[in-house]
Amino acid sequence: MKVNVVDRDVCILEAKFSLEQGRALAWEKRMVAFGALARALSLFGKPSVSEFVLESTASLYLPFWRIAWCSRFDYDRDASIECQRRPEVQVVTIGQRSFNVKAGGFSFDAVEHCVENFESDQCVSGLGQNDDRYRMYLDLPCKRLPAEQIERFRPADAEVVAPRVTASALIRDQLADFLRNAPTKGARLVREESLELTHLNLWLRPVRQFSFRWVPKDKCGTLTYDAVSGEVEAGGISGSETIVRFLSSDIVQEVGKEALQQLIQLVLNG
């Protein structure tokens, strides 16, 4: 199979909202951090601001992947063509060949000349969850760096969460079923079999994470504020995630043309 890798840039989204704006909104939305507990207790009255303490603030870049590929197959395959005819038809002649009609039909062997094109474009969290909402970021302003220059991105006021999902594992998962069931399986003749990885981009999304303590209840809760969209959601990254000052270029560069070819062979032979 002919393979090609086109775009492996790292895309760093620009923050539209400041830390101060995030902190103000987090205080306003602080009850969201405590989920069902807050909803239940709110039935008995709204707790005062003095009951809460902002224990910590973190500025982070969260990763997600964009993987897009297209493939083309040009091949011939053997086929049996079934033809149904009206009841009065007894024999059908095609060219120099005649076919007896039985049970209202007949069949003949042929060769089908086929061309098929496939494509896929998906966004996947670098922390393991698929989420269609990431597509909203693809057309927003961002700073693009070649994969080999990712180590230059060292934000002074934030840290980076390293992706738990590797590029090679992502590609393997995305392509495994497709390649094992490629249309050229059992083909009579293959003229073209190609795969192009059009996008393998690591995107970094700036967020602010705020951890609150509800003092009278002795409960802790976390809010994550999206510094691009301005949205707030309950929860934050877990303690198992790896937080670094900068990322290694190997994270994206591990999948080049040769590596992709090897991955494809592993899938087909596996």
Mind explaining what this structure looks like?
The structure is a single chain. The chain is α+β, with helices and mostly antiparallel strands. The chain has one domain. 18% of the residues lie in helices and 44% in strands. The chain is built from five helices and twelve strands. The protein has helices at 19-28, 35-41, 167-180, 250-253, 257-269; strands spanning 2-7, 10-13, 52-84, 91-94, 97-100, 105-125, 142-145, 159-161, 189-214, 219-226, 232-234, 243-244. Strands 1, 2, 3, 6, 7, 8, 9, 10, 11 and 12 form a ten-stranded mixed beta sheet that branches. A hairpin with a 5-residue loop joins strand 10 (219-226) and strand 11 (232-234). Helix 3 (167-180) crosses helix 5. It is elongated. The two termini are 16 Å apart. The mean pLDDT is 87.
